Amino acid sequence: PEYEAPKEGRRIDVTYDDLGGLGSTIDQVREMVELPLRHPELFQRLGVDPPKGVLLYGPPGTGKTRLARAVANESEAHFLQIAGPEIIGSQYGESEKRLREIFEEADQNAPSIIFIDEIDSIAPKRDEVRGEMERRLVATLLTLMDGIKPRQNTVVIAATNRPDAVDEALRRPGRFDREIVVGVPDQAGRREILGIHTRGMPLGDDVDLDELARSAYGFVGADIAALSREAAIEALRRMLPEIDLEENTIPNEVLEKLDVQRSDFVAALKRVQPSALREIMIQA
Ligand code: ATP
């Protein structure tokens, strides 16, 4: 197949198939988020309010953001993202205004999903150091969440690496009262994620993804994505001497020789460290 460059501004839609090792997590998200967004009538019939807020928690790079995007895409919901640290950085009053605007946009485009990444930075626990800004933001967020009507078809998904650091007021019924763990993948999960990130790669016959999944102990999704990219770059380095870069386009017979081999992954494994290990090394 001919290589086609992504068109400018094209929406790259993530689906559940782009998430590896999260089988039962996806089931939970589908039940708690997708089902009420797609079929609010089921909840109306039963006389219960659909969930308004879901807290995703798990270590960095395990796919929380990707999961939120996938559920929005698969539910055909309008997706709005708020980056915690980004919003607290803005000027006095600006952050609250921005939050209100986002909730309004969600309402106008329902069904909607509002995704708040790193919620702990906006809403840290009261006993943690918290400035005036955070206090006001939490108050605004609480008001906005309480204002979501059951029929409004909006779900707020928040993500954090530190669930214990999130203000309890946000975790009361009717707010973020559902929790879903997005865990570190096991070997089978790593194998699935490797499959996803090497999907578009020409792999050499000697590449054994099962073996690689075993070697990538402690790797989370983001690490595996980095590993796959690094292996591709290794392949390029290995092939570069054989490529005449002066040519306007590299001929197909040369391109066809370019593949990612076992040795490229072995080299990449030496460069890419699992992110959890990096953290330990920084602390040490
Ligand atoms: P953070 O807490 O650091 O924001 P996160 O949990 O939100 O991390 P993502 O931003 O979703 O993680 O993941 C980063 C990248 O890592 C994704 O774009 C994807 O390439 C890869 N990735 C992470 N988890 C998975 C997974 N389960 N399956 C496939 N790819 C994954």
Question: What would you note in describing this structure?
Answer:
With 284 residues, this protein is an alpha/beta fold. It contains 13 helices and five strands. The chain has helices spanning 23-38, 40-46, 64-74, 84-88, 94-108, 119-122, 132-147, 187-197, 209-215, 221-239, 252-255, 262-271, 275-283, and strands spanning 53-57, 78-83, 112-117, 154-160, 176-181. A five-stranded parallel sheet has the order 2-3-4-1-5, sandwiched between helices. It is elongated, with a radius of gyration of 22 Å. The chain starts with 22 loop residues before the first helix and ends with a helix. The model is unreliable at 1-10 (pLDDT under 50). Bound molecules: adenosine-5'-triphosphate. The site of adenosine-5'-triphosphate (ATP) has 19 residues, from helix 3, helix 8 and helix 10. This is Cell division protein FtsH. Keywords: ATP-binding, Cell cycle, Cell division, Nucleotide-binding, Repeat.
